[in-house]
Design a protein that fits this description.
heterodimer, A: 112 residues, mainly alpha, Arc Repressor Mutant, subunit A, B: mainly alpha, 2 domains, 81% helix, 0% strand
């Protein structure tokens, strides 16, 4: 049986909407560019169904918007509401990181 | 020889029309860019299939946070109706398998199996009455829908469903005449040709039910239904969904009692012989009932959600 690394599943988030918002924070991108960028910075391969499902929901919620472009590859950009939502999610994660780091230091300090 | 490039528009057909109109072009372009002339992997195709199912759920109001309460209520009621048609199929196979079970039960055994059977029969009849009541309640809106151009929309699917219905009903007479020349053992799997014809007929019934479900979904999602009609349909759907749970429990109750007192009956073996109570047909029937009951529960959860939002 293949052994699962101890930190598997704990290393990074793979929530498609969060990954898409993070990718668009660096500028507008179309679907293929989004998938490549997400694979590069997060190591997550989003399938076509997951990617376009998340794009659809994010657009419905007004967190991203399409740019007018004659090309079939329609690019998207993050909206103000999307930036605020991403900032809020990152702040939540930062709190978790801070608490986790502090408690881990305490635990390691207690052990040594 | 150069390989023909993969046609991504084939995958797009799985998505609902409204989604295709909005995202179709860019999605095909994205798929073309990603595949870059190669064939899609199974994982790639499965991801698209799951995405399409999800989008169909959103488009019908069965998934998502945002649909209007009336859209959710309508979708929930339609899901219960579709689940009921699965139940009709499961009920028919249960009825066939439990035929004459009372004769196989040893004298002095408990009457639990009879109670389970009566629950299935009575609740099944009540369910049919509720579904027909729902059809009567929606009839004026359906007539108005047909008069305002709905027939043009629904015609192709209605004719398809009607053709299948005629085929299924027409096959009853030759099948019945044939079965009269066969013994009980031959009728229940002993004659391979008859069994094949019977299974083909059962598949045709399932396809007919699916066809009519498609007609109902197509029409009901486009019909103008008043809040009162929607509320009545939602209440009827909730009752039907409850009945599906009771019927499933009744069938399981029947199975448990027959399995402990007359397992030979479940295998079609001779009286008193040692047989397994695990009949594949009954397992499939109960599985169908449970799937349908779960789908009905999902529909009711959507209805309850719509009531909370309203």
């Amino acid at each position: 049986m293949k052994k699962t690394p101890a930190n598997e599943g704990l290393r990074r988030t793979n929530d498609p909407p969060l990954l898409i918002l993070t990718s668009l924070a660096s500028g507008p991108k179309h679907g293929h560019a989004l998938a490549k960028d997400i694979a590069a910075f997060a190591g997550v391969e989003l399938g076509p169904g997951a990617l376009y499902g998340a794009i659809t929901r994010l657009e419905e919620r007004g967190l991203i918007e399409p740019l007018n472009d004659d090309d079939r590859r329609r690019p998207y950009r993050i909206t103000e509401a999307g930036s605020a939502s991403l900032a809020s999610a990152i702040a939540d994660m930062r709190r978790l990181v801070d608490v986790g780091t502090a408690r881990l230091r305490l635990a390691l300090g207690g052990l040594s | 020889m150069k390989r023909r490039p993969y046609d991504a528009t084939r995958l797009l057909k799985w998505y609902p029309a409204s989604w295709r109109a909005r995202y179709g072009d860019e999605f095909v372009s994205y798929v073309d860019d990603t595949l870059d002339g190669t064939r899609p992997t199974a994982g790639f195709v499965i991801s698209i299939a799951l995405g399409a199912v999800r989008e169909r759920g959103h488009a019908s109001g069965l998934l998502g946070e945002h649909p209007a309460p009336d859209v959710q209520s309508r979708a929930g009621s339609l899901l219960v109706l579709c689940a009921w048609s699965v139940f009709i199929l499961a009920g028919a196979t249960f009825s066939k398998q439990s035929e004459h079970f009372a004769r196989a039960m040893p004298a002095g055994s408990s009457s639990s199996a009879r109670v389970g059977f009566e629950i299935v029969a009575w609740c099944g009849a009540m369910g049919m009455i509720l579904v027909l009541t729902g059809a009567c309640v929606a009839l004026p809106s359906f007539v108005a829908f047909l008069r305002s151009g709905g027939w043009t929309v629904a015609r192709r699917r209605v004719l398809h469903a009607l053709a299948l219905t005629v085929l299924v009903l027409g096959a009853i007479v030759p099948l019945t005449l044939w079965s009269r020349h066969l013994s009980t053992v031959q009728r229940n799997g002993g004659d391979a040709t008859y069994s094949f014809a019977f299974v083909a007929w059962a598949i045709a019934i399932a396809l007919t039910l699916v066809s009519w479900d498609r007609v109902f979904v197509q029409c009901v999602t486009r019909m103008a239904l008043s809040p009162r009609v929607l509320r009545t349909e939602a209440l009827l759907a909730t009752a039907v969904s409850l009945l599906m749970v009771v019927i499933t429990a009744g069938a399981a109750f029947w199975w448990a009692d027959v399995a402990s007192n007359a397992p030979w009956f479940l295998q079609g073996a001779s009286f008193g012989s040692s047989s397994s109570p695990l009949s594949p047909n009954l397992i499939i029937t109960l599985a169908l009932m449970m799937v349908a009951a779960c789908a009905g529960a999902l529909g009711v959860s959507r209805i309850v959600r719509s009531w909370r939002q309203a």
